[in-house]
Design brief:
3-stranded antiparallel β-sheet; 30% strand; Rossmann fold
Protein backbone atom coordinates (compact mmCIF):
# COMPACT_ATOMS: atom_id res chain seq x y z
CA UNK A 1 0.00 0.00 0.00
CA UNK A 2 1.38 3.40 -0.96
CA UNK A 3 1.54 5.92 1.89
CA UNK A 4 3.25 8.71 -0.04
CA UNK A 5 3.42 9.56 -3.74
CA UNK A 6 5.63 12.28 -5.21
CA UNK A 7 5.39 13.21 -8.87
CA UNK A 8 7.84 15.62 -10.51
CA UNK A 9 8.36 17.62 -7.31
CA UNK A 10 10.60 20.65 -7.85
CA UNK A 11 11.65 23.40 -5.45
CA UNK A 12 13.37 26.72 -6.08
CA UNK A 13 14.48 28.83 -3.11
CA UNK A 14 15.81 32.36 -3.48
CA UNK A 15 16.30 31.87 -7.22
CA UNK A 16 18.28 28.65 -6.65
CA UNK A 17 16.90 25.42 -8.04
CA UNK A 18 17.32 23.03 -5.10
CA UNK A 19 16.08 19.98 -6.99
CA UNK A 20 13.90 19.19 -9.98
CA UNK A 21 11.41 16.50 -11.00
CA UNK A 22 11.67 14.17 -8.00
CA UNK A 23 9.27 11.25 -8.13
CA UNK A 24 8.95 8.20 -5.88
CA UNK A 25 6.45 6.21 -3.81
CA UNK A 26 6.80 5.12 -0.19
CA UNK A 27 4.94 1.96 0.73
CA UNK A 28 3.96 0.26 3.95
CA UNK A 29 6.78 -1.80 5.40
CA UNK A 30 9.57 0.52 4.24
CA UNK A 31 12.22 2.26 6.34
CA UNK A 32 13.65 4.79 3.91
CA UNK A 33 16.91 6.59 4.56
CA UNK A 34 17.23 9.95 2.84
CA UNK A 35 20.95 10.56 2.35
CA UNK A 36 23.14 13.03 0.52
CA UNK A 37 25.67 15.82 1.08
CA UNK A 38 24.86 19.06 2.88
CA UNK A 39 22.86 21.31 0.59
CA UNK A 40 21.49 18.47 -1.53
CA UNK A 41 17.95 19.30 -0.43
CA UNK A 42 17.03 16.60 2.09
CA UNK A 43 15.29 18.97 4.51
CA UNK A 44 13.75 20.94 1.66
CA UNK A 45 12.37 17.76 0.11
CA UNK A 46 10.76 16.63 3.35
CA UNK A 47 9.23 20.05 4.01
CA UNK A 48 7.94 20.37 0.44
CA UNK A 49 6.45 16.86 0.66
CA UNK A 50 4.44 18.01 3.67
CA UNK A 51 3.33 21.24 2.01
CA UNK A 52 5.48 23.42 4.27
CA UNK A 53 7.33 24.97 1.33
CA UNK A 54 6.07 26.16 -2.07
CA UNK A 55 6.83 23.65 -4.80
CA UNK A 56 5.89 22.50 -8.26
CA UNK A 57 4.66 18.99 -8.93
CA UNK A 58 2.54 16.79 -6.72
CA UNK A 59 2.70 15.30 -3.24
CA UNK A 60 -0.14 13.06 -2.11
CA UNK A 61 0.07 14.59 1.38
CA UNK A 62 -0.70 18.12 0.22
CA UNK A 63 -4.08 17.03 -1.12
CA UNK A 64 -5.22 16.22 2.43
CA UNK A 65 -6.84 18.56 4.94
CA UNK A 66 -4.70 19.58 7.92
CA UNK A 67 -6.47 17.05 10.17
CA UNK A 68 -6.20 14.27 7.60
CA UNK A 69 -2.50 14.99 7.18
CA UNK A 70 -1.94 14.97 10.96
CA UNK A 71 -3.50 11.52 11.09
CA UNK A 72 -1.54 10.29 8.06
CA UNK A 73 1.99 11.44 8.86
CA UNK A 74 3.98 12.43 11.94
CA UNK A 75 6.70 15.01 11.35
CA UNK A 76 9.82 15.61 13.40
CA UNK A 77 11.75 18.64 12.09
CA UNK A 78 15.45 19.16 12.57
CA UNK A 79 14.90 22.11 14.94
CA UNK A 80 14.31 20.86 18.48
CA UNK A 81 12.70 23.66 20.39
CA UNK A 82 10.67 22.95 23.52
CA UNK A 83 9.25 26.30 24.53
CA UNK A 84 7.33 25.42 27.70
CA UNK A 85 8.48 23.61 30.87
CA UNK A 86 5.82 20.91 30.60
CA UNK A 87 6.48 17.36 31.70
CA UNK A 88 7.77 14.74 29.30
CA UNK A 89 4.48 12.87 29.66
CA UNK A 90 2.44 15.94 28.69
CA UNK A 91 4.80 16.71 25.81
CA UNK A 92 4.47 13.20 24.39
CA UNK A 93 0.70 13.30 24.91
CA UNK A 94 0.51 16.23 22.46
CA UNK A 95 0.98 13.62 19.75
CA UNK A 96 -2.55 12.38 20.41
CA UNK A 97 -4.22 15.74 19.61
CA UNK A 98 -5.13 14.82 15.98
CA UNK A 99 -7.15 11.88 17.28
CA UNK A 100 -9.16 13.75 19.94
CA UNK A 101 -12.17 16.07 19.82
CA UNK A 102 -11.20 19.66 20.58
CA UNK A 103 -10.60 20.14 24.30
CA UNK A 104 -11.05 16.50 25.28
CA UNK A 105 -8.67 15.05 27.83
CA UNK A 106 -6.76 11.93 26.89
CA UNK A 107 -8.85 8.78 27.45
CA UNK A 108 -7.36 5.54 28.67
CA UNK A 109 -6.93 4.02 25.22
CA UNK A 110 -4.96 7.04 24.03
CA UNK A 111 -2.81 7.06 27.17
CA UNK A 112 -1.60 3.62 26.11
CA UNK A 113 0.01 5.17 23.00
CA UNK A 114 1.73 7.77 25.19
CA UNK A 115 3.06 5.14 27.59
CA UNK A 116 4.30 2.94 24.75
CA UNK A 117 6.14 5.84 23.08
CA UNK A 118 7.80 6.88 26.34
CA UNK A 119 8.91 3.29 26.88
CA UNK A 120 10.20 2.91 23.30
CA UNK A 121 12.47 5.94 23.71
CA UNK A 122 13.70 4.93 27.17
CA UNK A 123 12.23 7.96 28.90
CA UNK A 124 10.16 6.41 31.69
CA UNK A 125 12.48 7.74 34.42
CA UNK A 126 12.00 11.27 33.03
CA UNK A 127 8.22 11.05 32.71
CA UNK A 128 7.51 13.78 35.29
CA UNK A 129 10.53 15.97 34.57
CA UNK A 130 10.18 19.30 32.77
CA UNK A 131 11.09 18.69 29.14
CA UNK A 132 12.84 22.06 28.87
CA UNK A 133 15.33 20.98 31.55
CA UNK A 134 16.55 17.87 29.76
CA UNK A 135 19.77 17.63 27.77
CA UNK A 136 19.64 18.16 24.03
CA UNK A 137 19.78 14.43 23.37
CA UNK A 138 17.03 13.69 25.87
CA UNK A 139 14.85 16.40 24.35
CA UNK A 140 15.39 14.85 20.92
CA UNK A 141 14.21 11.49 22.22
CA UNK A 142 11.16 13.13 23.82
CA UNK A 143 10.20 14.74 20.51
CA UNK A 144 10.60 11.41 18.73
CA UNK A 145 8.34 9.88 21.38
CA UNK A 146 5.74 12.57 20.66
CA UNK A 147 5.82 11.63 16.98
CA UNK A 148 5.51 7.94 17.84
CA UNK A 149 2.51 8.62 20.08
CA UNK A 150 0.78 10.19 17.07
CA UNK A 151 0.53 6.61 15.73
CA UNK A 152 0.41 7.50 12.05
CA UNK A 153 0.99 5.14 9.11
CA UNK A 154 3.98 7.28 8.05
CA UNK A 155 6.64 9.01 10.15
CA UNK A 156 9.08 11.52 8.69
CA UNK A 157 12.09 12.68 10.71
CA UNK A 158 14.81 15.15 9.73
CA UNK A 159 18.17 14.08 11.20
CA UNK A 160 16.56 12.58 14.32
CA UNK A 161 19.77 10.95 15.62
CA UNK A 162 21.96 14.05 15.35
CA UNK A 163 23.37 14.79 18.80
CA UNK A 164 22.45 11.41 20.29
CA UNK A 165 25.09 9.20 21.85
CA UNK A 166 25.99 6.00 19.93
CA UNK A 167 23.73 3.72 21.97
CA UNK A 168 20.69 5.93 21.45
CA UNK A 169 21.52 6.41 17.78
CA UNK A 170 21.35 2.65 17.30
CA UNK A 171 18.23 2.15 19.41
CA UNK A 172 16.43 5.05 17.71
CA UNK A 173 17.18 3.74 14.24
CA UNK A 174 15.88 0.35 15.39
CA UNK A 175 12.64 2.04 16.45
CA UNK A 176 12.21 3.40 12.92
CA UNK A 177 12.95 -0.02 11.46
CA UNK A 178 10.45 -1.61 13.86
CA UNK A 179 7.75 0.73 12.53
CA UNK A 180 8.40 -0.65 9.05
CA UNK A 181 8.42 -4.22 10.32
CA UNK A 182 5.01 -3.53 11.92
CA UNK A 183 3.56 -2.50 8.56
CA UNK A 184 4.00 1.26 8.82
CA UNK A 185 6.69 3.33 7.08
CA UNK A 186 9.37 5.80 8.09
CA UNK A 187 11.45 8.29 6.14
CA UNK A 188 14.57 9.44 7.95
CA UNK A 189 17.27 11.84 6.77
CA UNK A 190 20.60 10.63 8.08
CA UNK A 191 24.33 11.24 7.61
CA UNK A 192 25.70 8.04 9.16
CA UNK A 193 25.95 5.71 6.16
CA UNK A 194 26.67 2.66 8.29
CA UNK A 195 23.53 3.09 10.39
CA UNK A 196 21.54 3.86 7.26
CA UNK A 197 22.76 0.67 5.61
CA UNK A 198 22.06 -1.50 8.66
CA UNK A 199 18.60 -0.25 9.55
CA UNK A 200 16.98 1.05 6.36
CA UNK A 201 15.28 -1.17 3.82
CA UNK A 202 15.84 1.44 1.12
CA UNK A 203 18.03 4.48 0.54
CA UNK A 204 17.33 7.54 -1.59
CA UNK A 205 20.53 9.40 -2.44
CA UNK A 206 20.05 13.07 -3.28
CA UNK A 207 22.77 14.86 -5.22
CA UNK A 208 23.27 16.93 -8.36
CA UNK A 209 19.81 18.46 -8.12
CA UNK A 210 17.83 15.25 -7.99
CA UNK A 211 17.85 11.56 -7.10
CA UNK A 212 21.23 10.07 -7.88
CA UNK A 213 20.27 6.58 -6.69
CA UNK A 214 17.26 4.85 -5.15
CA UNK A 215 17.20 1.25 -3.99
CA UNK A 216 18.45 -1.27 -1.43
CA UNK A 217 21.44 -0.03 0.61
CA UNK A 218 23.88 -2.41 -1.12
CA UNK A 219 22.96 -0.93 -4.50
CA UNK A 220 23.12 2.70 -3.41
CA UNK A 221 26.20 2.73 -1.18
CA UNK A 222 28.77 1.80 -3.81
CA UNK A 223 32.24 3.41 -3.84
CA UNK A 224 31.51 5.13 -7.14
CA UNK A 225 28.20 6.62 -6.02
CA UNK A 226 29.61 7.70 -2.66
CA UNK A 227 32.55 9.40 -4.35
CA UNK A 228 30.25 11.11 -6.86
CA UNK A 229 27.74 12.34 -4.27
CA UNK A 230 29.98 13.13 -1.29
CA UNK A 231 33.35 13.72 -2.94
CA UNK A 232 35.19 11.24 -0.72
CA UNK A 233 36.65 7.78 -0.99
CA UNK A 234 35.59 5.32 1.70
CA UNK A 235 36.85 2.21 3.43
CA UNK A 236 34.01 -0.29 3.51
CA UNK A 237 33.78 -3.59 5.36
CA UNK A 238 30.90 -5.98 5.91
CA UNK A 239 30.75 -7.09 9.56
CA UNK A 240 28.42 -9.59 11.30
CA UNK A 241 26.41 -6.57 12.49
CA UNK A 242 26.20 -4.96 9.06
CA UNK A 243 28.34 -2.74 6.83
CA UNK A 244 30.76 -0.13 8.17
CA UNK A 245 31.88 2.93 6.21
CA UNK A 246 34.85 5.15 7.01
CA UNK A 247 35.66 8.20 4.87
CA UNK A 248 39.29 8.20 3.81
CA UNK A 249 40.05 11.26 1.71
CA UNK A 250 38.56 13.91 -0.52
CA UNK A 251 38.53 12.91 -4.18
Amino acid sequence: MSLLKLRNLSVKLRQRQVFRDISFDIGAGECVGLIGPNGAGKTTLMRATLGLLPSEGQSSLTTLTALQRARAVAWMPQAREIAWPISIERLVALGRIPHLPLGQTIPRQDQAFVDAAIDQMGLDQFRSRAASRLSGGEQARALIARALAQDTPLLMADEPIAGLDPAHQISTMQVFRDLADDGKASVVSIHDLGLAARHCTRLILLAEGGILADGPPAEVLTPDLIARAFGVSVWHELTPNGPVFQPLEVV
